[in-house]
Amino acid sequence: MNILQINTSDTRGGAGKVAYLLKNELAKMGHQTSFLVSRKYSEDDDVKLIRPYSNLRRRILKKLSYYLANDLDLFPSGNILRMQEFKNADIIHCHNLHTNYFNLNLMRKISAVKPVIWTFHDMWPITAHCAHAFDGELKKNGFFTCPSLDIYPPIAWHNERYLEKRKREIYQRSNFYIVTPSKWLADKVSQSVLRDKSISVIYNGVDTDIFRPYPKSLCRKDLGLPQDKKIVLIVAKKGKLNPWKGGNYAESVKEFFADNPNHYFINLGGIENKTEANARIVSYVSDPEILAKFYSAADILLYPSIADNCPLVILEAIACGLPAVSFNTGGIPELIEHKKTGYIAAYRDSEDLKNGLELMLRLSPEELKKMSDISRENAVVKFNIKIMAGKYAALYQSVQQIFRQNLRP
After folding, report:
1. CA–CA gap between residue 350 and residue 332 (Å, rounded)
2. β-strands 274-276, 279-283: how paired?
3. Are 137 and 48 a contacting pair, CB within 8 Å?
4. In the prediction, which pLDDT does 371 show?
5. Residue 107 — very low, low, confident or very high, per pLDDT cuts 50/70/90?
6. Phi and psi (nearest 5°) for 276?
7. Phi (first) and psi of residue 2, to 5 degrees
């Protein structure tokens, strides 16, 4: 089967990493794969730019989208229909279609000639403009309310009525199958404007051969970390500057434990490399094997995200046998079993988050080892890239068969 994927980027961002891993795993299964993106970061020949925009043109389009409060209609992506990768494809698999590169009306044209699967990595398809509605209510028109104009992707003024109307019109004239990487998001979609579309849940997957438990003491030695302390790994990209990942909650919890000499904190994804008393800030790590060593060197993952679906950070961590402490948000409770493979704190409750980490730090080595073993087992049997790819391949075949039957006179 020939599968074409479409996404904002190939190897950066959660959706891009998932799509790129899927592409490579499908190729190992014998499928032909190609990938169209707006921003290319790999050197993979199977990944092609939809349009080779200059950085200046990108900035102009981004500004236009913001000030016109419209990320649906402005982008000339119709050349996709003329690309050989599209013509050769048996299945079109879309991922993130926001971020200033895709004219959503193209979905109507694509789905008229090819079977389409659309994986929702966030809530953008069922809101006016934002990738996450947080506590936004479901309106009578089937869209969730965005709590602010500034929620990514931001818009400059209240154009929600038009954006919702436009999305509804396109959805009514398009035929696509929806995949969500969590039951939480599937439930949101089933209540929304897209309630009549077919929905499947396929969890994201990681390479459990790379993300696996490595010897803790050896990892600590290689990374220059203390051998005699309990290490808490915080993953909050850009720290307090990224409110989505809960950097402010992580800092609050970290300060509570700051005076305990037996604890050591690593903040992975900070702005710059920096060493502090009983703490270390590490900038972005792109090498998955080094990342796996950080997971293996730690005792507990602190991941206080306040907006998530099926985060790769959690999956990578548990694949390395690292128990996690996180908020009850999005699909995270589907990945962490409370007090069995980690701790799920009440949403945005700093005190409960601190109590959860404190509870985990008091566990005996034997109790932590049991949690670690269960976490690893769950990752292998539920969140393995091979399992994810197999489920997508089965869905491709089913959708392609239905599409062919509908074409028969």
Report:
1. 17
2. antiparallel
3. no
4. 96
5. very high
6. -125, 180
7. -105, 115
pLDDT tens column, 238-284: 555 566 778 888 888 888 887 788 899 999 876 777 877 788 888 88
Cβ proximity of 129 and 146 under 8 Å: yes
- Burial (CB count <10 Å: 0-12, 13-18, 19+), residue 301: buried
Distance of CA 120 to the CA centre of its chain: 9
Task: Provide the 3-class DSSP secondary structure of residue 347.
Answer: coil
Distance CA 333, CA 52 (A): 40
End-to-end CA distance of the chain: 24
Q: Are 341 and 324 in contact (CB under 8 A)?
A: yes
| DSSP state letter for 146 | P
Q: Does the pLDDT at position 408 exceed 70?
A: no
Burial of 227 (0-12, 13-18, 19+ CB in 10 A): exposed
Report pTM: 0.95
Distance CA 340, CA 351 (A): 20
pLDDT at 240: 57
Question: What residues contact residue 242 under an 8 Å CB cut-off, 6+ apart?
Answer: 236
Q: Which residue, among 74, 165, 174, 67, has the nearest Cα to 114 in the 3D structure?
A: 174
The SS3 call for residue 6 is strand
Nearest to 81 by CA among 103, 105, 107, 110: 110
- If you compute the radius of gyration of the chain from its CA atoms, what whole number of angstroms results? 22
SS3 121: coil
Q: CA-to-CA distance for 241 and 244, rounded, in angstroms?
A: 9
Q: Is the Cβ–Cβ distance between 50 and 77 less than 8 Å?
A: yes
DSSP 300-343: EEEE--SS-SS-HHHHHHHHTT--EEEES-TTGGGTS-BTTTEE
Return the structure tokens found at 386: 């091979």
